[in-house]
Amino acid sequence: MHSSLCIPGALEQRFCISIPVHSTQQLLLTEKTLRARTAWLLALTSSALALSGCSAPAPTPTTQAPTNTTRNTAVGAAVGAVAGAGVAHATGGKAAVGAVAGAAVGGTVAYLWSRNMERQRLELERATKGTGVKVSRTDDNRLKMVFPADITFNSHSAELQPQARTLLGRFADSLKRHPTTHVLIVGHADSSGGPHINDPLSKDRANAARNYIFQQKVMGPRIQTEGRGAREPVASNDTPAGRAKNRRVEVFVMEQRR
Predict the structure, then answer these.
(1) Which positions ≥6 away from 46 have C-beta within 8 Å?
(2) Residue 20 is inside which H or E element, if any?
(3) Is the pLDDT of residue 72 over 80?
(4) Which of 67, 168, 189, 250 registers the highest number of CB atoms within 10 A of its CB?
(5) Residue 136 predicted with pLDDT over 70
(6) Last residue of some domain: 106, 137, 159?
(7) Residues ≥6 apart with Cβ < 8 Å to 12
(8) How confident is residue 193, by pLDDT bands cut at 50, 70 and 90?
């Protein structure tokens, strides 16, 4: 038998914790205790949110202001920690243990922008300079490369063009030098075909890029692929130039926090 406590949090998050009980009498006592602790728990949650908003240092020329993703992760962990501690307190458990468990539930997977990631970004910027490939850092600390259509694929085709092979070969060399990073390759299509054509085509394009990297002796599950069809255009599909921009491959490189 279990009793559940759900706590509405900020950022549209909701934390629910199931508490085991062993009898009807204990269930009633537990629920009564939880109700009595609700105001106290929510007050602590508000304090945690306030602290998480005030604890971030001001950005300096060598640091980056916290992004929405990093803020949400910190707030989620803070609220989760308070919720875990509160439930442990309400049910007679150890608050410290409950706080650690709650923080693990409330937090989300975070990516690390390390010196290694910055080094790889600079390497790839140099390797792709003047080719039309855009290299950037995303808000959630992933390295992003966008390979445009004029050097990757022709319309309705998943066959890599020669220049794309050259650039993917340089990318593969970078991956060999940075073996702790993981890769997501996302294929996109223009809207000149329906979803029954564009969805598998975009996946085939991502797989073509991955397979070429595999041929350069970079193997294993560290490289994943997705096909998103024409659902994420970056330009109008009403012109040939716009369709060419939408027909692209995006590569994300990330290093997970340990």
Answers:
(1) none
(2) strand 14-20
(3) no
(4) 189
(5) yes
(6) 106
(7) none
(8) confident
Distance of alpha carbon 183 from alpha carbon 60, whole angstroms: 30
Length of the chain counted residue by residue? 258
Domains identified in the chain, total number? 2
Q: Which domain holds residue 188?
A: 115-254
* 31 and 58 assigned to the same domain: yes
pLDDT band at 157 (very low <50, low <70, confident <90, very high): confident
Which H helix or E strand runs over 19? strand 14-20
Where among 62, 77, 106 does a domain terminate?
A: 106
Q: What is the pLDDT of residues 106-115, one digit of tens each?
A: 445 688 899 9
**pLDDT score of 144 more than 80:** yes
Domain shared by 215 and 188, yes or no = yes
Q: At 128, is the pLDDT very low, low, confident or very high (cuts 50, 70, 90)?
A: very high
Distance from C-alpha of 162 to C-alpha of 54, rounded to nearest angstrom: 52
Locate 250 and state its tokens: 């995006």
The answer to whether residues 116 and 122 touch, using CB atoms and an 8 Å cutoff, is: no
Which is more confidently placed, 53 or 215? Answer: 215
77 and 33: one domain? yes
Are 97 and 126 contained in the same domain?
no
- φ and ψ at 213, to 5 degrees? -65, -40
